[in-house]
Design a protein that fits this description.
Elements: E1 4-8, H1 16-31, E2 36-39, H2 45-55, E3 60-65, H3 67-76, E4 78-79, E5 82-83, E6 89-94, H4 100-105, H5 111-117, E7 123-134, E8 139-144, E9 147-151, H6 152-162, H7 169-183, E10 187-193, E11 199-203, E12 205-209, E13 231-236, H8 241-247, E14 262-267, E15 269-274, E16 282-284, E17 290-305
Parallel strand pairs: 1-2, 1-3, 3-6, 6-17
Antiparallel strand pairs: 4-5, 7-8, 7-17, 9-12, 9-16, 10-11, 10-15, 12-13, 13-14, 15-17
Helix pairs in contact: 1-5, 2-3, 6-7
Length: about 300
């Protein structure tokens, strides 16, 4: 018998998911059918639960939460040797303040509609593999399905995660971006794309994008595709705080790409290192796991997802 496991973050949406779970559970069951459920208690639990479920034979593992929960569940599909159960599928029922990835994947916000989509035929999407230096200064590896970035975004994560998010994801990220913009100093980095000629310069932020949105609705990579085997690498160069104040809203519509200080390239692998001894923080789906140096590698068609094309 096919087994479906829901990995539920009860703390998502400020704890509303836990309070509403009986109602959400009934809705999901009506729209999809039977499933097993597992609740997370702390950071990293969703990854562990997913790996255990897949090794036990689960055919579909569903993230019930926001972008952070999605990232953790995706990481549970992989270990250092690659996919744990390649034939298994990944699904999402949104239940968090963050909702960036579902916009690219096309998952409805409505619980009944999202659960119904889980009955769709799976399709393959790309996944990013990130090698980096963690907070303890040790080499680390993690995967991402949406966007990994570095620069001001890592500092924004810190501020967002220190806040209550009571105003919602979009407002929380916007306020944190303004706060970080006043404190952040543009970093000097060296970038190498697909083993080509390295280039050096000051950066405000660099987004290595599989999906299109991050930061609570910022359309940082409008043309990114989940199944083209390439990252969209969006480099925001030597921005000033004035650029942020007067043109900062452009990123919500994708107009920032018209700015001469912004460039877009496509690549399968990106190597990045900080220059001048500065610390450049990473952002991976709203979390700040570590810093440069880092490498980003695309794993083409590495994950099957239940979502309408």
């Amino acid at each position: 018998m096919a087994v479906t496991v829901l990995v539920v973050n009860p703390h998502s949406a400020g704890g509303k998911t836990e309070r509403r779970w009986p109602e959400l559970r009934a809705t999901i069951q009506e729209a999809y059918g039977t499933f097993e459920e597992r609740f997370t208690r702390s950071a990293g639990d969703a990854t562990t639960i997913t790996r255990e479920a897949l090794k036990a034979g689960a055919d579909l593992v569903v993230a019930v939460g926001g972008d952070g929960t999605i990232n953790e569940v995706v990481n549970g599909f992989f270990d250092d040797d690659g996919p744990i159960r390649p034939q298994a599928s990944f699904g999402i029922v949104p239940a968090g303040t963050g909702g960036d990835f579902i916009k690219t994947l096309g998952v409805p916000r409505d619980t009944f509609a999202a659960a119904a989509v889980l009955k769709s035929a799976p399709r393959k999407v790309d996944v990013g593999r990130l090698r980096y230096v963690d907070g303890a200064g040790k080499p680390a590896v993690r995967h991402f399905i949406n966007i990994a970035s570095f620069g001001i975004s890592g500092l924004v994560d810190r501020y967002v995660n220190e806040s209550s998010k009571v105003l919602g994801g979009k407002v929380s990220f916007a306020l944190a971006t303004l706060k970080a913009g006043a404190a952040y100093q543009n970093a000097s980095v060296r970038l190498t794309l697909d083993g080509g000629t390295p280039r050096e310069g000051k950066i405000y932020n660099v987004a290595v994008a599989n999906g299109r949105y991050f930061g609570g609705g910022m359309k940082v990579a409008p043309d990114a595709a989940l199944d083209d085997g390439l990252f969209d690498v969006v480099t925001m160069g030597d921005f000033s705080f004035g650029d942020l104040l007067f043109r900062g809203l452009d990123i919500y519509s994708g107009k920032h790409l018209r700015n001469p200080k912004v460039s877009v390239q496509r690549a399968r692998r990106i190597d990045a290192e900080a220059l001048d001894g500065v610390e450049v923080l990473l952002d991976v789906d709203g979390e700040a796991p570590g810093r440069l140096p880092a490498s980003f590698e695309i794993l083409q068609g590495a994950l099957q997802v239940r979502a309408k094309a």
